[in-house]
Amino acid sequence: MTLHEKTIVEAGRSLRSGEVTSEDLLDAVLLRASQTEAQLHAYLTLDKEGAREAAGQADADLADGIDRGPLHGIPIALKDNMCTRGVETTAASQILAGYVPPYDATVVTRLRDAGAVIVGKTNLDEFAMGSSTENSAYGPSFNPWDIGRIPGGSSGGSAAAVAAGSAFGALGSDTGGSIRQPASLTGIVGLKPTYGTVSRYGLIAFASSLDQIGPLSKSVEDAALTLEAIWGHDPLDATSYSAEYPDVPADLDTGVDGLKIGVIKELAGEGYEPAVESSVADMVQSLSEAGAEIVEVSLPTVDIALSAYYLVAPAEASANLARFDGIRYGLRVEGETTEELMARTRAEGFGPEVTRRILLGTYALSAGYYDAFYGQAQRVRVALRDDFARAYETVDALVSPTSPTVAFPAGEKIDDPLSMYLTDICTNPANLVGHPGISVPIGLDEQGLPIGFQVMAPALGERVLFRVAAEVERLAGFGARPVIEELAS
Amino acid sequence: MTARWEAVIGIEVHVELATDSKMFCGCAVEFGSEPNTNVCPVCLGLPGALPVPNRKAIEWIMAIGLALNCQVSHKSVFHRKNYFYADLPKNYQISQYDIPVCHDGYLDLPNDGESVRVGIERAHMEEDTGKSTHVGDGGRIHAAKSTLLDFNRSGVPLVEIVSKPDIRTATQARAYAQELRAIVLELGVSDARLEEGSMRFDANVSIRPEGSDVLGTKVEIKNMNSFRSLERAIDYEIQRQIEATGSDSDVIQETRHWDEEAGVTHSMRTKEGSSDYRYFIEPDLVPMIMDETWVATIRNKLPELPAQRRERYLGQGLDESSAGVLSDSPAMLRSLYDETVSLGADTRATANWLTGEVTAWLRKTGTEPADLRLEPVHLQELITIVDEGVVSSSAAKEVLEGILSGEGSARVVAERRDLIQISDSSALAEVIGHVLEEHPDAVASYQEGEQKVVGFLVGQVMRATQGKADPKLANEMLREALGGS
Amino acid sequence: MAIDIDIAHVARLARLGLTDEELEGYKSQLADILEHAARVQSLEGDPHPGSAHPLGFDNAFRDDERRPSLDREEVLSQAPEAMDGFFVAPPALETE
Ligand SMILES: [Zn+2]
Fold first, then answer.
1. What is the pLDDT of residue A488?
2. Are A105 and A259 in contact (CB under 8 A)?
3. How far apart (Å, rounded) are the C-alpha atoms in residues B388 and A292?
């Protein structure tokens, strides 16, 4: 196995055995990036210097007997909506071109404290709004499994980097599926933790009540140990929760015998590709054979969850993105008055999808429409939470496809916002209720494109979530790696 | 025949809290720092920053609410109020909407005679904006005029207190604002400096025919920077509305700006339809639960408030005016009052000394009240010796000066400075004998029935004793001597 | 369901200086999306209002303690225009 194909656990083992250094690991991913970036465009910024320094420090520390844990010396990529002090952070928007934050996001501090080496900043849909990474102001990313297709989104750059081996792991953010869906479409593991367990301080907000940072990785175990490094209360985030990290590793090998797993009835049928449905059904069957009791569960509100999502998220976004006004940082387009300056700057600086969502959210909150749209959407959230609570009275975990389809061709949905929005249908319920969800690759379709399997658990149910996910990973035995085509020159 | 009008006035007061740090971040709350030095990702609205509320600010608004007889909400939440303005970094203000921390209270205005109760609609918590300074030509590349922005004030905790429209006159409005200021000062939660803007007022004014309960068209007035300008602006506005009513220029709902120099209000140009604030619950924050235990803790820590204090003073026999003056005096003088009175001194005399001579001495010598060196027992003794006639009331002022200069107790000072009155009748009898001898004409006049010459003779006795004779005793003894001869 | 959208007003509220042509395009897209989103109105009953936070906790405060502020030069280095320690903007429309 080449170095860049290793998991974090494997790379860490090689590091500690003295077989490789952190600098070797960094060289491997940088080499891989140099071979794949032209095709994939996973990164917006590679911080070679900063990474080199961190890797050197990690090696020196290890030589001194200082071991900061599983991420020590491991090259990790960050979605470019997480602030990094001194390193350009744009959220893939023109409005933040050249912006250099004066502070680190809490997750960045935690990764550094865990000894991780931050390789660079990955591409995303502008302000994390999208499901294909085509909405980046700096050009789209592509899928390592087929460079004519999108890698999913909005954490498409992080997903492509991990799948291609230009990072051992990455952080993404998930507002309606933006970690799980690209993980699914690129054949890797993607986790959205329980809302409030990972600090959002320094994450450029899209929709505050839905956004959650989580890992993208090559294995379930890698996801668990990355989560452990970033988990926990942050005094700088009032929505962050004080909860001990659950003993996830203890249950990674426990299996599903004795667990009751619910299959969500509403997440199947029309719009789901047959290959996705049959792979998911096979996995459910395997779980049953492995000792889980399978039941079909109905969550009726799931049918209108997507509608609620596309009101709540834009509404919050319309306020969160109001600060980009050309006054204190970022792009400015001059005007005679402050008002004119702001209106021009924002019209110029935001791409079409972001503009669309700001308009949508502004409308949903405006006088006369608030109750019918935003207010009603919040009520749907409560009803949805009640649905989940009822389900979890009888089951330990819920499963579904992660995405109704495999990776679609670039450009296919870009002019049809509604069909793009529908790709989030399986993932956004977990955001609306704040529960954890994970996508695990379970196979390839007949075109050789990855299929993901989603596991969900109640709030703070990470232990059972990982227990099921680890079993899914074992049962699937998914070991395929993408072969990245050379660009015709 | 003109109708009689009455004004309907509501006041909105903004009070900046004097916490160490800002409402949602750890930056210093400090007036007068260099621009943009007390700023961080949170109060500058940098991408990714999140607010975390200051517990003390919440406790202080609870204290304000309780002092205003408000209900403290069991559960309260923050909302985002969305509007674009250059000095509002996030282009939304974290404020409160339908569930403020405090609601439904009242404030009784100090008033001779009939009492006026002003309802308090709500007191809510929010964050202050930055400061814009508009500068003229020059200094800027792209435009003739520009705005300089300083975000030091951005995020300073701000309490907005909204009264019910229970105020009827400009005088009451002023009394309301002053009483509110006295309360926040007593609570120690704000500097409440009008000139620095740490306390600011807006007034809503409308008029209606006296006795009517219809609501007139409401006009909001802004930019009153002193109690006097608040009173003047409201008076002006009431008059303007009375004159405008029925004329071509009828009163319209608008915001007007008080021009202190010109003594008039001006209409502010506002844009149509710009005030859809799209309030929604702030998703970066969780609800606040103010349970009974917490509220009780705050309530138990409340100091004696001005109204309670005035009430107590009245009960101790002070009149309205000295109760008011003493209540507004510095804490040092008030506690001197309490301690002196507890030694048994007369309350009125104690209050008079403290608010009169002692206050005058402080001012004259430029001494801070906190640096005042006055033992309650010395003040009590001073009052006693005046009462006993040991020193005259004019000499007593000199005695006080001696005490305040550290010369010792009242009696010691009076003796050292030779200010004791001659109230020994045998000593005085001798002086009176001399005076009568020297003024036979006066004695004769008295015996012819000219009673008023006694005054002249008392004056002569005082002169002969360099003012130390007890005039009352001298008067009695003179009459006796004259009548008996 | 016909959805009525004053798109120019919405754009003004959102401080987006779009052309009439752009506004028309967004208006028709919004109409499609809102037609789908209006399905939230099919929810029956009135579920209890809940906190948005799934863990439903409250009272997340900080103590009244100061933390270091940012270096002004670093802050202003990101500003499109700055002068004498201030951020600079053109005049506000509302000022007289
Ligand atoms: Zn700050």
1. 66
2. no
3. 101
| Domains along chain A with CATH numbers | 3-262+392-487 (3.90.1300.10)
Partner A contacted by B273 (CB < 8 A): no
Rounded to whole angstroms, the Cα distance separating B475 from B457 reads 8
- Is A432 in contact with A210 (CB distance < 8 Å)? yes
Supply the range of the domain harboring residue C30.
7-41
* Backbone conformation region of residue C79, classed left if phi is above 0, alpha if psi is from -120 to 50, else beta: beta
Active site members of A: 79, 154, 178
Q: How far is the centre of ligand 1, averaged over its atoms, from the C-alpha of C87 (Å)?
A: 16
Residuewise pLDDT in 10s, chain A (489 residues): 799 999 999 999 999 999 999 999 999 999 999 999 999 999 999 999 999 999 999 999 999 999 999 999 999 999 999 999 999 999 999 999 999 999 999 999 999 999 999 999 999 999 999 999 999 999 999 999 999 999 999 999 999 999 999 999 999 999 999 999 999 999 999 999 999 999 999 999 999 999 999 999 999 999 999 999 999 999 999 999 998 999 999 999 999 999 999 999 999 998 999 999 999 999 999 999 999 999 999 999 999 999 999 999 999 999 999 999 999 999 999 999 999 999 999 999 999 999 999 999 999 999 999 989 999 999 999 999 999 999 999 999 999 999 999 999 999 999 998 889 999 999 999 999 999 999 999 999 999 999 999 999 999 999 999 999 999 999 999 989 999 988 765
- Determine the 3-state secondary structure of B243 from DSSP: helix
Task: Tell me the C-alpha distance between B406 and B375, whole Å.
Answer: 10
Residues paired with residue B76 on neighbouring β-strands, in sequence order: B288
DSSP assignment letter at B210: T
Same domain, B263 and B373: no
Q: Are A87 and A50 in contact (CB under 8 A)?
A: yes
Task: Report the separation in Å between the CA atom of A84 and the middle of ligand 1, taken as the mean of its atom positions.
Answer: 18
Closest CA relative to residue A12, chosen from A213, A188, A219, A158 = A219
First-last CA distance in chain C: 45
* Burial of B87: CB neighbours in 10 Å, binned 0-12, 13-18, 19+: buried
Q: Write out the H or E segment, with its range, that includes residue C86.
A: strand C86-89
Q: Domain count for chain C, please give it.
A: 1
The full length of chain A comes to: 489
Domain-located, residue C11:
yes
Please enumerate in sequence order all residues whose Cβ is within 8 A of that of B180, keeping only pairs 6 or more positions apart, or say none: B13, B15, B68, B107, B161
The two tokens of residue A424 are 């989030």
Give the whole-angstrom CA distance, residue A345 versus residue B432. Answer: 98
Do B420 and B386 touch, CB atoms closer than 8 A?
no
Q: Which domain holds residue B440?
A: 425-484
B278 touches chain A (CB under 8 A): yes
Closest CA–CA distance from residue C37 to any residue of chain A (Å):
4
Per the structure, how many domains does chain B have?
3
Structure tokens at B52: 């975390």
| Contact yes or no for B222/B258 (Cβ under 8 A) | yes
Residues B157 and B251 in one domain: yes
Interface of C with B in 38-77 (CB under 8 A): 51-53, 57-70, 72, 75-76
Residue whose tokens read 């309606």? A176
Residue B465's CATH number: 1.10.10.410
C-alpha span between B208 and B182 (Å, rounded): 31
- Say what the pLDDT of residue B244 is: 86
- How far apart CA B404 and CA B408 sit, in angstroms, is 9
